[in-house]
TrEMBL record, chain A:
Annotated EC: 2.7.11.1
UniProt record similarity statement: Belongs to the polygalacturonase-inhibiting protein family. Belongs to the RLP family.
GO molecular function per UniProt: ATP binding; protein serine/threonine kinase activity
UniProt xrefs under Pfam families: LRR_1, LRR_8, LRRNT_2, Pkinase
Organism: Lithocarpus litseifolius
Placement of ARM repeats on the sequence: 317-347
Domain Protein kinase positions: 732-1019
Name of protein: non-specific serine/threonine protein kinase
Transmembrane segments: 21-38
PANTHER family: OS01G0149700 PROTEIN, OS01G0162200 PROTEIN
SMART domains, per database record: LRR_SD22 (SM00365), LRR_TYP (SM00369)
Automatic annotation (TrEMBL), chain B:
Native species: Lithocarpus litseifolius
Residue ranges annotated for the Disease resistance R13L4/SHOC-2-like LRR domain, each copy included: 71-172
Lineage, opening ranks: Eukaryota, Viridiplantae, Streptophyta, Embryophyta, Tracheophyta
Keywords: Leucine-rich repeat, Repeat, Signal
Protein name listed in UniProt: Leucine-rich repeat-containing N-terminal plant-type domain-containing protein
Cleavable signal peptide: 1-22
Residue ranges the record marks as coiled coil: none
Keyword rRNA processing tagged: no
Pfam families: LRR_14 (PF23598), LRRNT_2 (PF08263)
Xref: InterPro entries: LRR_dom_sf, LRR_N_plant-typ, LRR_R13L4/SHOC2-like
Ranges where the Leucine-rich repeat-containing N-terminal plant-type domain occurs: 24-63
Length: 1037, 216
């Protein structure tokens, strides 16, 4: 593909015996010999032309010269200068051109000549004798002209590695002498022309690395002489045509990196000359055909990165020539066949990223040519075979992410070529073999996330090539060997989450290549070695969360010399003293975690020089003094946590410049003064200033934090009203303003805070209604405790005295022409009486409309629906105690006090019988309705059944003997005598209002008077009073 | 043959560099997101895929088991598109990508974020339809997709999101009808739609339209 090779017949089998990588180099060496071979072979091919008459010969030579020069001048100027020898009329003397004996051009070799231009201007018809057109590795662009079919003697067409676009001309199918087609590494699109199937001499077809689409034409199965078929790196789809099984000469087949689907044809097992088979990176499914085991010349089988399922056929163990077997990244199940142990020439075995189970066959230990063994990311169990110690050529061993158990065989220490050993993410137990100290070429050792115990062998300190040592997440004990100081190439050392103890060896300070040192979550004690100041390449130092006992002493100021340091984590220790001033020199420091220590003193202003800081966490220390305003220079800060210290003074005003701040937590200090406006902190989603001495007001600008999710200003000295603008925080979920001195009412805008789920307003001076939203309704009483009179719809909170509601009740007078005067009179008298009486139990008149056609009164709406709702809910009904119920009864009076209802708003169950028949509404109808509602309030349910039994039976019947006590709402107890008297009185009034004869019912005026002096008509105990007693007393007069 | 072997040697080489990554699917998913996004202000600079987990990356929050629970990239000036890998963040609770220039479709794989509480994709350039798969997000409380270029209708399937409290799809190109079941049933629709008389969303893109049902 790189070069045209007229030597394929004799040499290619030889090449194929070589290791592929070597062969690649070899080809380059051979290129030097090619010209000789070419001229000798072309001489014999062109001999039939020797008889040609000289005149014709000269004409032909001139024609070819002209065509070549025309093409030359069509190329870009620079390319023309490359072809400076192309001048005159005798092309056979020009560079890169060969002719036959009749001086006609047969070979055009311009591979890698740096040419830029198109191909259209090359007049193909001028070259009747051209055999070999090699323009590979140039920068030719445009399409491949279809008239290329005029080169009818063409044997080799190599246009690879250019920038040709669009489709492959199907006319190429007419060039029946073609032996080699190489169009690889272009940008060609469209389909593979099925006409290519007519080129019966074709031995080598390479269309790889283009953007070809569609299916592989079945006609390619006709190419019986084909030895090489490369279609890899295209976008071919569909299944692999069965017809390819007819390509009996095929030696190299590469269809990798396409979108091929379907199965691997089992008939491929008949392609007995196949030496390499690449089907990797497709969407092939189904199982691996066992017949592939017949391909006994096969050296490479790569079918990785597909969707193959089923188990690995043990027949693959018959592929005795195989040097590479890649079945990785499929869905293969079952066990690894022991027969793979027969593949004695195998250098590479990839089975990673499947679902293989069972144990690793110890027979793999017989593969003594193996250099790369990767079985990672499977479900393999059992132990690592000790026989692996025989794999003396092994450089890479990946067994990570399986479920391997047992101890690590010390025989692995014999793998003297090993450079990369990764056994992480298994269940390995026991010790790290001391024999690992022999792995002198080891650069990477990953044993993390196992259950390895005991101490780290000091022999690991002999691994002088080691650059990456990760032993984290095990149960290792003991100390870090001082010998680690010899690991001069070490760049990464992860020992976190073990149970290592002792002090941190100061020898680690000698690891001059170290860039990442993570020792968190161990049991170290002692001080941080000052020698760490020598680790000039260190970017990450994590010594935090050292659980049992701790690092103490002060932070060595030498750490300030680590000019590469980007992450420093020393949290959760017992470090004392001040934060070194030298930290201001850490110009690359991006994260600084010092939280949960005993650090004291002031935060030095120099910290503001560490301008790359993104996260600064100094929380839970003993830091005091003021917050230096220089921290306001750290404009990259995302998280700033200074909470739980002893900081005092004001919050620097320039914190408002921290425009990247996501989270700001200054809680639990002694900060005073105003809450800064934080005008540019537009990204904040957490703001916690609680537990300070901040005073004055909540700044209005707080509503600029459009994305705030968490706001805690509790336990300060903030006063004033809660700004209405706070309601703009539509994404706020948690709001705590408790323990301040806020007054006024909760802004009505709070109903817009749709995301709110937790609220605390306790211990303020707030009054008035809470917003009627779910977050408030479902808040515990604790959230409202100790205020000056919050009310509203939340458990444990008093209902508000009057509903501020937009819903009103409207009474409409029917304007009947005949008595419109009467109507108007009643209308005005009601307005007058309602405006004269001012009592909180009397329904409010909001206004009226007096129009010849519409007489309307607008009242406060007393929710009828809510009465039913309350009485149906046991919990609410219990809260609706007798005192409240008696008040409601009084409140009802005025709302019903009219003789002029014309549109009856109640439901049928509240209507007097005579009113229901006639719909003729009178005052007596209203009185009846009042009686029903009142009885409902007392009974806690609709009194329909009781009323009908009283109405339908004679006064003498037993239904009148029911004790009043049995009728009253049993969910409430009568507490006081006074209450009892009132209930009896109200019950009596209600029953009087329900008299069957409208004339016997009292007027509302009478009812009002009775209720005003609360005189009980009885002296006997409640249990003795029956309904008969109440009715027996006759009407109220 | 020669280039192919070179190619495979190269691929092998690449694979040999990545073992630590392949064990960390959440980090891989976030790193894949990084590759899809253009990040002129370098907010994703700390996203180093060679780390054991992404918990130290900025704008990423993990729980105590080192699972990613928050992704906070609101107001970050990033553009590009989201990919299916985000669906790997199985523990994610907050997906905050508001106010950026992210376009393309909302990947249907976001429907596998079973623990998601909040999906804030508002003020971006998302197009295509609202994926039906979002109906699988049973913990979802906040779904804010407003101010994008979403088209199609509101999927009926979203009516199964019983925890949904805030649903904002205003200022898109949505059409069709508003669902009336599930959390949508308690939404006081007339309050917002009566002026437009028909219960369709055809004019949603001009309405300052809010559907919310945390109350009532």
């Amino acid at each position: 593909m790189f070069v045209s090779l007229p030597i394929y017949d004799q040499l290619s089998p030889v090449i194929q015996l070589f290791n592929q990588f070597l062969s690649f180099l070899l080809i380059f060496l051979l290129v030097a010999i090619i010209p000789d071979l070419v001229s000798s072979s072309t001489a014999s091919v062109t001999s039939p032309f020797t008889y040609t008459n000289s005149k014709v010969k000269i004409a032909q030579e001139r024609k070819e010269a002209k065509a070549l020069l025309n093409w030359k001048i069509s190329l870009l100027i620079k390319s023309q200068s490359l072809l400076s020898s192309w001048a005159g009329t005798t092309p056979c003397n020009w560079v890169r051109i060969n002719c036959d004996q009749s001086k006609s051009v047969t070979h055009l070799h311009l591979s890698g000549y740096g040419l830029k231009g198109a191909l259209h201007n090359l007049s193909f018809q001028s070259f009747p004798n051209l055999l070999n057109l090699d323009l590979s590795f140039n920068s030719l662009f445009g399409t491949i002209p279809s008239n290329i079919s005029q080169l009818f003697k063409l044997s080799i067409l190599n246009l690879s590695a250019n920038q040709f676009i669009k489709k492959i001309p199907s006319e190429i199918g007419q060039l029946t002498s073609l032996y080699i087609i190489d169009l690889s590494m272009n940008c060609m699109t469209g389909l593979i022309p099925q006409e290519l199937g007519m080129l019966s001499s074709l031995s080598d077809l390479e269309l790889s690395s283009n953007n070809l689409t569609g299916v592989i034409p079945a006609s390619l199965g006709n190419l019986r002489n084909l030895t090489t078929l490369y279609l890899f790196e295209n976008q071919l789809s569909g299944s692999i045509p069965q017809e390819l099984e007819m390509l009996s000469s095929l030696s190299d087949l590469a269809l990798s990196s396409n979108n091929l689907t379907g199965v691997i044809p089992a008939s491929f097992g008949n392609l007995s000359n196949l030496t390499t088979l690449y089907l990797n990176e497709n969407q092939l499914s189904g199982s691996i055909p066992a017949s592939l085991g017949n391909l006994n010349n096969l050296t490479v089988l790569d079918i990785g990165n597909n969707k193959l399922s089923g188990s690995i056929p043990q027949e693959l163990g018959m592929l005795s020539s195989l040097s590479k077997l890649a079945l990785s990244s499929n869905n293969l199940t079952g066990v690894i066949p022991t027969s793979l142990g027969n593949l004695r020439n195998l250098t590479t075995l990839y089975l990673y990223e499947n679902q293989l189970s069972g144990s690793i066959p110890q027979e793999l230990g017989m593969l003594n040519s193996l250099s790369d063994l990767e079985l990672s990311s499977n479900n393999l169990t059992g132990v690592i075979p000790a026989s692996f110690g025989n794999l003396s050529k092994l450089t890479t061993l990946y067994l990570y992410k399986n479920q391997l158990s047992g101890s690590i065989p010390q025989e692995l220490g014999m793998l003297s070529s090993l450079s990369d050993l990764e056994l992480a993410l298994n269940n390995l137990t026991g010790v790290i073999p001391a024999s690992f100290g022999n792995l002198s070429k080891l650069t990477t050792l990953y044993l993390y996330k196992n259950q390895l115990s005991s101490s780290i062998p000091q022999e690991l300190g002999m691994l002088s090539s080691l650059s990456d040592l990760e032993l984290a997440l095990n149960n290792l004990t003991g100390v870090i060997p001082a010998s680690f100081g010899n690991l001069s190439k070490l760049t990464t050392l992860y020992l976190f989450k073990n149970q290592l103890s002792g002090s941190i060896p100061q020898e680690l300070g000698m690891l001059s290549s170290l860039s990442d040192l993570e020792l968190t979550s161990n049991n170290f004690m002692g001080v941080i070695p000052a020698s760490f100041g020598n680790l000039s390449k260190l970017t990450t130092l994590e010594l935090g969360v050292i659980s049992d006992n701790q690092l103490f002493g002060s932070i060595p100021r030498e750490l300030g010399m680590l000019s590469s340091l980007s992450n420093l984590e020393l949290s959760e220790n017992n470090l004392t003293g001040a934060i070194p001033i030298s930290f201001g020199n850490l110009s690359k420091l991006s994260t600084l975690y010092l939280h949960m220590n005993q650090l004291s003193g002031r935060i030095s202003p120099e910290l503001g020089d560490a301008t790359q800081l993104h996260v600064l966490d100094l929380s839970s220390n003993q830091l005091n003094g003021e917050i230096p305003k220089e921290l306001g220079n750290l404009t990259l800060l995302i998280d700033l946590f200074l909470d739980n210290n002893k900081l005092s003074g004001h919050i620097p005003n320039n914190f408002g410049m921290l425009s990247n701040l996501d989270r700001l937590n200054l809680a639990r200090n002694s900060l005073n003064g105003l809450i800064p406006e934080l005008e540019n902190c537009k990204k904040l989603w957490v703001l916690n200033l609680s537990n300070n001495h901040l005073s004055k007001f909540i700044p209005l600008q707080i509503s600029n934090f459009h994305f705030l999710q968490y706001l805690d200003l509790s336990q300060n000295l903030i006063t004033g009203e809660i700004p209405q603008q706070l309601g703009d925080l539509k994404t706020l979920e948690i709001l705590n303003l408790s323990h301040n001195a806020l007054f006024g009412s909760i802004p009505s805008s709070f109903v817009q805070m749709l995301s709110l789920r937790s609220i605390d307003l306790s211990y303020n001076q707030l009054r008035g209604p809470i917003p009627n939203t779910k977050a408030f309704r479902e808040a515990s009483i604790e959230a409202f405790r100790n205020n000056k009179g919050l009310c509203g719809n939340a458990t444990g909170l008093k209902a508000c005295p009057s509903t501020i509601s937009q819903v009103v009740a409207i009474k409409k007078f029917h304007p009947r022409s005949e008595d419109s005067v009467v109507n108007l009179k009643a209308f005005t008298s009601e307005i007058r009486s309602l405006t004269e009486i001012r009592h909180h139990n009397i329904v409010k008149l909001y206004g009226f409309c007096s129009h010849p056609r519409h007489l309307l009164l607008v009242y406060e709406f007393l929710e009828g629906g809510s009465l039913e709702k309350i009485l149906n809910n046991d919990e609410l009904a219990q809260e609706f105690d007798w005192a409240k119920r008696l008040n409601v009864v009084k409140a009802r009076i005025m709302s019903s006090d009219t003789s002029y209802w014309t549109s009856f708003a109640g439901t049928f169950g509240y209507t007097a019988p005579e009113c229901a028949y006639t719909m003729e509404v009178s005052e007596k109808c209203d009185v009846y309705s009042f009686g029903v509602v009142t009885l409902e309030v007392l009974m806690g349910r609709h009194p329909g059944a009781l009323i009908s039994s009283l109405l339908s039976s004679s006064f003498a019947s037993s239904s009148h003997d029911v004790p009043l006590e049995d009728v009253l709402d049993e969910r409430l107890a009568l507490s006081t005598n006074q209450e009892l008297e009132k209930v009896v009185l109200v019950a009596k009034i209600a029953l009087t209002c329900l008299h069957t004869s409208p004339q016997s019912r009292p007027t509302m005026q009478q009812v009002y008077q009775k209720l005003s002096n609360w005189k009980s008509p009885f002296t006997k105990p409640l249990c003795m009073i029956t309904l008969r007693d109440l009715i027996d007393l006759g009407n109220l007069n | 043959m020669a280039p192919l072997s070179l190619f495979s040697v190269f691929v092998t080489f690449l694979l040999s560099l990545t073992p630590a990554l392949s064990t960390n699917s959440e980090g891989n998913a976030l790193h894949a997101l990084r590759r899809r996004l253009s990040d002129p202000t370098n907010v994703l600079q700390s996203w180093d895929p060679t780390l054991v987990n992404p918990c130290t990356w900025f704008h990423v929050t993990c729980d105590s088991n080192n699972h990613v629970i928050r992704l906070d990239l609101g107001n970050s000036n990033v553009s590009g598109a989201l990919g299916p890998e985000l669906g790997e963040l199985k523990h994610l609770q907050y997906l905050e990508l508001y106010r950026n220039e992210i376009g393309g479709k909302i990947p249907e794989e976001l429907g596998s974020l079973k623990n998601l509480v909040s999906m804030d994709l508002y003020e971006n350039k998302f197009e295509g339809e609202i994926p039906k798969s979002l109906a699988k997000l049973k913990s979802l409380r906040f779904l804010r997709l407003n101010n994008n270029k979403l088209a199609g209708s509101i999927p009926r399937e979203l009516t199964s999101l019983s925890n949904l409290k805030v649903f904002d799809v205003s200022n898109n190109n949505l059409c069709g009808t508003i669902p009336v079941d599930g959390p949508f049933a308690t939404f006081p629709m007339e309050r917002y739609l009566l002026p437009f008389s028909s219960l369709t969303l055809s004019s949603v893109n001009i309405l300052p339209f809010y559907l919310h049902f945390m109350d009532y």
